[in-house]
């Protein structure tokens, strides 16, 4: 756990603020690779994860960009109320969206606040001299975080902006014009990511070349109804079996019975609670696992997922 202070707040757009964070004692901070995120513990006790939006330079600052979400559960609202000099606690950087190889050509595709983890990737690719394209979708220039900075960046020649008020991105055209050897890195709202991935796979991209990070979990009415089904979970190491009642997540049911699994986002996109599944058929509701991992059925995100069988046996 790191003790940080807000060194600077920059108003990127009317709804996005960029926060420059530093150690309260001016110490150096743990380094990280493109695609990494940090988890902040806010003064209220809420814990939220945010992508780091700049490669480390001095080694003494972290930068994040936070959208004031109209559907916020409190995290973005609390951060947007904070001031320069306010204290925050932070866990060391983690990375579930790693730039697999900075020497391999890449197609970076971001929408809205999903642009943040892609910026360090672009910086790294530029530094490595690797070919890449960067497509950024937003409603208009006024709502596009980092718009001015990206226009003045060292890789502006790689940038293409798509503003839906004028003309939405043509995914078939963009992907059709890209080198099929490129790896695709995509981040943003779930609908955008699904559209990019579906189009890429239909055009022949293999799953090994597709990398994604969601900023919101996929939810639907059918998923919410599935959450109401009762089932049981078994802790393999002790043999204990617990009921998972309607409206209660697996992690909540276990916690009520003294079994703790680390959780963070509680929406299935961060990977913190990933748990091995020994028996049973999961009902995956996360956005972290790949299609291949879901089909294999050996891993579950218990913070949000349910069950299609009466019993799930967890490797705990």
Automatic annotation (TrEMBL):
Domain 2Fe-2S ferredoxin-type positions: 231-316
The keyword Oxidoreductase is annotated on this UniProt entry: yes
Domain of life: Bacteria
Residue spans crossing the bilayer: none
FAD-binding FR-type domain residues: 1-100
Keywords: 2Fe-2S, Flavoprotein, Iron, Iron-sulfur, Metal-binding, Oxidoreductase
Name by which UniProt lists this protein: PDR/VanB family oxidoreductase
Protein source organism: Rhodanobacter aciditrophus
Lineage: Bacteria, Pseudomonadati, Pseudomonadota, Gammaproteobacteria, Lysobacterales
């Amino acid at each position: 756990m790191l003790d940080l202070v807000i060194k600077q707040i920059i108003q990127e757009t009317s709804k996005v603020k960029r926060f420059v964070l530093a150690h309260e004692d001016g110490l150096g901070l743990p380094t990280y690779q493109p695609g990494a995120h940090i988890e902040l513990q806010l003064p209220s006790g809420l814990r939220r994860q945010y992508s780091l939006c700049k490669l480390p330079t001095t080694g003494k600052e972290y930068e994040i960009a936070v959208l004031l979400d109209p559907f916020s559960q409190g995290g973005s609202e609390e951060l947007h109320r904070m001031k320069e000099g306010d204290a925050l606690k932070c866990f060391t950087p983690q990375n579930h969206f790693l730039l697999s190889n900075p020497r391999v050509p890449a197609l970076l595709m971001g929408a809205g606040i999903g642009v943040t983890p892609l910026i360090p990737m672009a910086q790294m690719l530029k530094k490595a001299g690797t070919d890449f394209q960067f497509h950024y979708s937003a409603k208009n220039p006024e709502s596009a975080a980092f718009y001015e900075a990206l226009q003045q960046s060292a890789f502006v020649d790689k940038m293409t902006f798509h503003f839906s008020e004028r003309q939405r991105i043509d995914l078939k055209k963009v992907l059709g014009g890209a080198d099929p050897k490129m790896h695709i890195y995509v981040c943003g709202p779930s609908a955008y990511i699904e559209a990019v991935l579906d189009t890429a796979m239909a055009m022949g991209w293999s799953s090994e070349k597709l990398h994604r990070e969601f900023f919101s979990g996929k939810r639907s009415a059918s998923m919410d109804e599935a959450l109401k089904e009762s089932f049981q979970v078994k802790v393999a190491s002790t043999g204990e079996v617990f009921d998972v009642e309607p409206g209660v997540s697996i992690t909540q049911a276990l916690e009520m019975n003294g079994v703790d699994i680390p959780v963070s986002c509680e929406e299935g996109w961060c990977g913190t609670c990933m748990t091995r599944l020994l028996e049973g058929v999961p009902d995956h509701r996360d956005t972290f696992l790949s299609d291949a991992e879901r089909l294999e059925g050996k891993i579950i995100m218990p913070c949000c997922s349910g069950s299609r069988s009466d019993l799930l046996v967890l490797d705990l």
